[in-house]
Amino acid sequence: MLTDKKEPVISVIIPCYNEARNLERGVLDEVLDYLDGREYAWEVIVVNDESTDNSRSLIEHFVRDKDAFYVVDIPHGGKPAAVWAGIQRARGDVVLFTDMDQSTPIAELGRLLPWYEQGFDVVIGSRSTEREGSSLVRKAGSYVFLTLRRLFLLRDIIDTQCGFKLCRRSAALEVFPHLEFLRQEEKPSGWKVTAYDVELLYLFEKAGCMIKEVDVTWSNRDVSDTKSQGGDLARYLNESLQMAREVTRVKINQLKGLYDKV
After folding, report:
1. What is the DSSP code string of 133-147?
2. CA dist., res. 62 & res. 45, Å (int)
3. pLDDT tens for residues 100-137?
4. Do strands 122-126 and 165-168 pair parallel, antiparallel, or not at all (unpaired)?
5. More confident residue, 129 or 96
6. From the CB of residue 38, how many other CB atoms can be counted at a distance below 10 Å?
7. What is the DSSP letter of 241?
8. Distance CA 1, CA 233 (A)
9. Phi and psi of 13, rounded to 5°?
10. Where are the alpha helices (DSSP H) in the chain?
């Protein structure tokens, strides 16, 4: 049960890498407006993943007069590293990971929390197959990725890639250190899509966590101009290749028994 204790019950973690344009349209105001009316205590941790635009100054300006908002700076390590840094800083019993663009609005937290209160350790958002705002190329690609991934891993989960996930902080602290992405010596450069969600959910499942998938509202609201890689088709092909490699890697690790200690 959520309580009214003064310490945060929920820690909202928002990774940030070159999100200036999304920040300028007021996404953090949206987060504040929703959370400000909640009966439970909360905190928001924005993790700046060494942005090269003016994201850091925009975040600092926003949080300076807001007691429950915090900014954490890390060397560029990619989204999994940013989420992990937020988890280690978090004080809430439950943590929510959400993307800066708020394509899944923060208000969808209200759909996840009842399942957490029913005893689920991990509650993940699931986007509609329509995926409003996505191109036909992306919709087709999502279907192909889903079909192939379910042949090998997480057969009971439809949408592993939605950036709106809630879990018990204790479960996150147990599982995240086993992510191979965080143990790699080679650090990413620039923006990079990852399928770390697949490995994360597999590890949660292997650790015995109860996982619930919940439909959430999703519409592509990302206006960042730092992720273009030669157009939507080129970006889709690049992302698909990277995701295929990640899923293959997780399956190989599974067969090798590298996750047996989880």
Report:
1. T--HHHHHHHHHHHH
2. 12
3. 999 999 999 999 999 999 999 999 999 865 555 555 65
4. antiparallel
5. 96
6. 14
7. H
8. 46
9. -110, 125
10. 20-24, 27-35, 55-63, 79-89, 109-117, 136-152, 169-175, 180-183, 196-206, 232-256
Cα–Cα distance, 210 to 203 (Å, whole number): 12
119-150 b/e (C-beta count within 10 Å ≥ 16 → b): ebbbbbbbbeeebeebeeebeebbeebbeebe
- The DSSP bridge pattern shows strands 69-73 and 42-48 to be parallel
Write down the residue that tokens 């090998």 correspond to.
Answer: 152
* Residue 11 Cα distances to 49, 83, 92, 135, 242, angstroms: 18, 11, 5, 33, 30
Strand partners, 45: 13, 70
Contact between 183 and 253 (Cβ < 8 Å):
no
Distance in angstroms (rounded) separating the CA atoms of residues 195 and 181: 10
Assigned token pair, 139: 């919709």
Phi-psi region of 230 (alpha: psi -120 to 50; beta: other; left: phi over 0): left
12 strand-pairing partners: 44, 96
Closest residue by Cα to residue 159 from 182, 139, 137, 189:
139
The string of pLDDT tens digits covering residues 192-232 is 656 689 899 999 999 999 999 999 999 989 998 776 555 56
- 159, two tokens: 């949408």
- Token pair belonging to 3: 């309580």
Query: 9, 93 in Cβ contact below 8 A?
Result: yes
Residue with tokens 């990725």: 145
Q: How far apart are CA 108 and CA 125, in angstroms?
A: 8
